[in-house]
Amino acid sequence: MVEFIIKRTIQMIVVIFLALTAVFFLLRLSGDPATLFLPPDAPKDQIAQYREMLGFDRPLYVQYGDFLLKAIQGDFGESLRSHEDALSVVLGRVPATFQLAFAALGLSILIAIPIGILSAYKRNTFYDRIGVGLTVLGQAIPSFWLGLLLIFFFAAVFHLLPSGGGGTIYHMILPTITLAAYSVARFARFTRSTMLDVLKKDYIRTAKASGVPMMRVLFKYALKNSLIPIITLVALDLGVLLGGAVITEVVFSWPGVGRLLMQSLLNRDFPIVLAGVFFIAVVYSIINFIADIAYAYVNPQIRVK
Amino acid sequence: MLLPFLMLLVIFTTACTAGTAGDEESKSSGGKSSKKNNVVIGIEADAATLLANTDVNYITDVQIRNIYDPLIKRNPETGGFEPALATEWKNIDEYTWEITLRKDVKFQNGDPFNAEAVKFNIDYILDKKNNSTYLSRWADIKEVKVIADDKVQIITSKPFPTMIARIADDLLIMDPGNVKKLGLEEAAKNPVGTGPYKVKEWVRDDHLTLIANDDYWKGKPSIKEATFRYIPEFSSRLSAFLSGEIDLFKNIPVDSLDNVKNNENSKVESIGSSRVNYLALNTLHKGPLQNQKVRQAINYAVDVDELLKTVLNGNGTKMTGPLSKINADYVETKDYGYNPDKAKELLKEAGYDPKDLKLTLDTPNGRYPMDSQVAQAIAAQLKRIGIDVKVQVNEWGNHLTKIQQRKAGDMFILGWGPTFDAQSTIQNLFMKDAPYSGFYDSEVEKAIQKAIPIFNQDKRKQAFGEIQQLLVDQAAWVPLWQQADLYAVNKNLDFKPKVDESMQVFDMGWK
Amino acid sequence: MSKMMIENEINPTVVFPSIKKKSKVRHFFKQLSKSKTGLAGFIIIIFLLVLGVAGSWIAPFDPLKASFGDKLLPPMTKGHLLGTDQLGRDILSRIIAGTKISLIIGITTVFLSGLIGSIIGIISGYFRGWIDVILMRIVDVQLSFPFILLVLVVNAVLGAGLKNIIISLVIGGWVMFARVVRSEVLALREKEFILSCVATGVPRWEIIVKHILPNLFTPIIVLSSLQVASFIIAEASVSFLGFGVQPPQPAWGNMLNEGKDYIFNSWWLITFPGLAIVITTLGVNLFGDWLRDELDPEMKGES
Fold first, then answer.
1. PROSITE patterns from the xrefs (chain A) (predicted)?
2. pTM > 0.90: yes or no
């Protein structure tokens, strides 16, 4: 087990390194940001000067080497726009994104698990059909469209909730619902199928036969044993949530890492994009890492890989 | 059983700390504005820095102009020069400008405003270490001399006829003492100027809150507190405005004007902007448009009045030449008008059958009012005489890069501004080496080179007047219009738009 | 989803039953008619295919024709069933035209990423060694990043346009196929019938083409059915964010992007293209679910 962990940690580091490299070169290929940061009436020689100041005139491998050296120390340079330390800017937005992600996660678990349990318990009845129907629908609705619809109803038509920005808990409601929607569908389906499998098991039948009340059977035995695979899926989905957060943050102007990344991509603010990519790659890798460990723990056969 | 409770705990704590996403202050000052004492302005993005003279973007400038004062400002309706921190200005000779400063003005921290401060600020721009994006515009300054406590002389290395425009548009005065004491990084977050407002709090990418400087030299501001809230999405801004969360925002898309007008708590204020939109007929791209007759034909084939009426719902002021009417050097030029038959005739003369022409039109999307829609409308108009136009919509960064690298198509849409004088427009858009130019003609180039250094204002105006006629004759553009700046304003807020696009809270008031 | 979990769940080693071709088709439809949801999905897909192919004849208006006098008309005015957009173009016609684009993107990306991913998976899984190590490291790098972000960054660099969005999606999508195919090949090459081929000196290429490939069809189809929907939604998301397919080319994603500024006065601009996406994804998912259940009885009842 320890060997497995060490191996995966090394893998993770290699992977992050390669990801940074890839993005670095991709960005450099997309052109240089001098155009966007200088006034439109800047003459050619100032543009050249600016490029020189940013170091974009050096050969690519030199730029890359310099970048790596500094990145290892956590220095991704300064934002081309605000001249603040890039990594600090990214880290400063992290709490907002995490808040959204965790709230969405919490909400989806709160809604999905009861739906899944009910569906499994009342299999093939009316409740089940509704539950399954909702989950299928939930996986077909693109999150940004849901976000737009929610804005339309709650902000445009009924003026109940703000349509964007951060700050108060009211600003958080719509984005959280939007982000949670897809996860609710997945969790509910998974809970249902896991519970169905567990409910077939012998020890459940034994418990039922010995007169244990149904509620107790459901929660004490069935749910408990379904939890591990469910938790694993939840851990995995945290990664999906991070990805979905980008879109949700843009639709609702939520001041998180996702929106920062989008704006920086559009502004060609390279240091921020790189710092953001680094951060996301690290977090995502850690999440996958934990998920894989949890999974390996549950299925011992996998460890021998 | 423990687990569900853990989950609930997570959600509960998350919900409670939700208020810290951004800031608690916004609950009080960013929420529903208590009408009498503060104003909330919605704006697209955060300022890059709160230091003056550093970032040339409008977004930064509009916010910090409440913290700092300029030496010279522009009249809100005509764009003419008016005293601010400077009371008089004149040339001693073609290389020397002398500026007399206002006496008894203090910075917000008590430091005196004087000639040393002015020198400091100009030197700041010129110092390469500061990476000011204004540097290229001030490159011809040789040195700044302190003559007396209230007199400054600016010496230029070449005659610099547009010096005053530069001072009015670019220069704001920071307190040297503050910058020296805190260093640039801290001063960028804790600025000190002479202006009517001080910074109360700045939460990046969320909002900037200012409070009144009661010792302001022009008098006590009537609005005590002002907040700029950053809302990048237009529909979010509109929603925030309609629900009363913000009191003012700029740039209402023309199709949403009715939403604002029909709301009983709001009104629309507008002004003809100094920004111009145009269709460049790219002579730097190999193709039929390198022929003057073809360019003239295109001018006859595009119906600008129809575009203005149907795409922009009438919001804009038509232009017939490269300069707008509020530009100081404007002269009237002929209007080609809409004449599709003449267009076909000219094309025949040039040797082209319109049905065989296939042209490309590059446009950005959302940078200028209805830009990509205008592009598509132009394509439809040209199709009426048989020309096939392919519209290429570019993301903004790509659009600029294409033009710079001379990879743009036969025509492209661009805007320019703010621009109050001829040189800034003409020098940058019609010369061979200018990064965003789409035009080159040797005769025009020579004329521009001769006109730039002319110091005598009348001779200058004449020279640029002739150039304007040349450009219209050469059909370098299909000139479109001056943008109409459209502001959504709370009905009870007294706000008059200014031609320099600034939003000065000091000049606003609640009824 | 973690790569490990997918590999172990999509692991059908069911070899396609060798019934005669004609009965296979009949069998297919017979099974299909038994499932209400599967059938519904299938019908939706056929409907979309018809729209995609014959769209230009069915559409009531020219999707590209701008008519500024008729802009922002509500649904059911002047013959515009679903209304017009900000340039006066008929929304119904644009949605129909957009079907073609979505189909092209969905089919092409799945096909290309499936092809590339499978080839790489086969090479990696069968030949192993250092080439396997390198290829899998590349896969890991890509998987260390949320799919949508990857597609976004690549597309921002490549620039807008149909060709580039397909490339971006394929770059993001091949890894799944590679991983799954590789684990299938790894399992297969240990099987008796393969080992005996090797022992009797059958050339490697023959082994791969004649024996391994046929057994890969099922997992590839299963994975494809899972991926199509993600690709369609990813493309719509990227176009919505301002990259991807650009106007005036009608694509559901960019229609939503253009329409979002009109939420306050013209709700139909975002409602109908969004519905189109939902219905398409629903159809694909329903049919895909049924297909998976059919091909892999082990997985019946799972997520």
1. ABC_TM1
2. no
On whether both A121 and A227 belong to a single domain, the answer is yes
In this structure, the strands spanning B197-203 and B151-156 are unpaired
- Per-residue pLDDT 10s for chain B (511 aa) are 444 555 555 554 544 444 333 333 333 334 444 457 899 999 988 888 899 998 888 889 999 999 999 999 999 988 889 999 999 999 898 899 999 999 999 999 999 999 999 999 999 999 888 878 888 888 889 999 999 999 999 999 988 888 999 999 999 999 999 999 999 888 989 999 999 999 999 988 788 999 999 999 999 999 999 999 988 878 778 888 887 889 999 989 888 888 889 888 899 999 998 899 999 999 999 999 999 999 999 999 999 999 999 889 899 999 999 998 888 889 999 999 999 999 999 999 999 998 889 999 999 888 888 898 899 889 989 988 999 999 888 878 778 888 988 999 999 999 998 888 888 889 889 988 888 899 999 999 999 999 988 888 899 999 999 999 999 999 999 999 999 999 999 999 999 999 989 999 999 999 8
Does the distance separating the beta carbons of C261 and B365 come in below 8 Å?
no
Residues of B in contact with C266 (CB under 8 A): 255
Nearest residue in C to A305, CA atom: C4
Are residues A164 and A253 both part of a single domain? Answer: yes
B415: which 2 tokens? 């805007």
Residue A163 domain-assigned? Answer: yes
Q: CA nearest B363 in C: which residue?
A: C247
Distance from the B305 Cα atom to the nearest Cα atom in chain A, whole angstroms? 28
Residues A100, A79: one domain?
Answer: no
Assess whether A170 and A263 both reside in one domain.
yes
Q: For residue C11, what pLDDT is reported? A: 44
Chain C CB contacts of B312 under 8 Å are none
Strands B38-43 and B225-230 come out as: parallel
Distance (Å) from the C-alpha of residue A277 to the closest C-alpha of chain B?
19
Domain annotation covers residue A304:
no
CB contact under 8 A, A163 and B236: yes
Q: Answer yes or no: do A15 and C144 touch at CB < 8 A.
A: yes
CATH number for the domain harbouring residue A218: 1.10.3720.10
Chains touching A (at least 3 CB pairs under 8 A) are B, C
Same domain (yes/no): A123, A222 = yes
Using the 3D structure, point to which of A86, A118, A138 is the last residue of a domain.
Answer: A86
Residues A145 and A203 in one domain: yes
Residues of chain B contacting residue C261, judged by C-beta atoms under 8 Å apart: 234-235, 253, 255-256
Multiple choice CATH, C38-62+79-302, 1.10.730.10, 1.10.3720.10, 1.10.510.10, 2.170.150.70? 1.10.3720.10
Are A169 and A195 found together in one domain? yes
- Among residues A38, A67, A86, which one ends one of the domains? A86
Domain count, chain A: 2
Domain that holds residue A77: 1-86
> Is A151 close to C263, i.e. CB distance below 8 A?
yes
CA-closest candidate to residue B131, choices A46, A67, A57: A46
pLDDT tens sequence across A177-214:
988 887 888 888 878 877 777 777 777 777 777 777 77
Q: Given an 8 Å threshold on Cβ–Cβ distance, is B256 in contact with C262?
A: yes
Question: How close does chain B come to A34, measured CA to CA in Å?
Answer: 10
Q: How far is B22 from chain C (nearest CA, A)?
A: 24
**Is C175 within 8 Å of chain A by CB?**
no
